[in-house]
Amino acid sequence: MRSTGYGIAAAAGKVGAFIAVQGFSSVASSTSGIQIILYIFAAWLLFGSLCSVLVPETRGKSLEEVVQEIYTENDNSAEHTSNTNNTESSAQQMLSDNSPRGNS
Prior knowledge:
The structure is a single chain. The chain is an all-alpha fold. The protein has two domains: about 1-55; about 65-100, no CATH class. Helices cover about 75% and strands about 0% of the residues. Helix 1 runs antiparallel to helix 2 (about 35-55) and helix 3 (about 65-75) packs antiparallel against helix 4. The relative contact order is 0.05.
């Protein structure tokens, strides 16, 4: 799942770079072109900063802890129609279904 996220992020970066290069050449030729470009870059910088601040940190946590937090947040945001034990057991079931099979 993380590798998919990295791939999407890399692709988005390449698309953004292409758009920036193409847009820069056409907008820069106008009278206030550089100023417009700097405002656009500043807006994207702020957007990226907000995204970085709002995404929770997962460093130092195991995959099981991250999955449990996601299920707990989803359970807390719902109207608590299901039991918390059901949420925990479904998270454990999902992890056991996706866990690699070892020689045990």
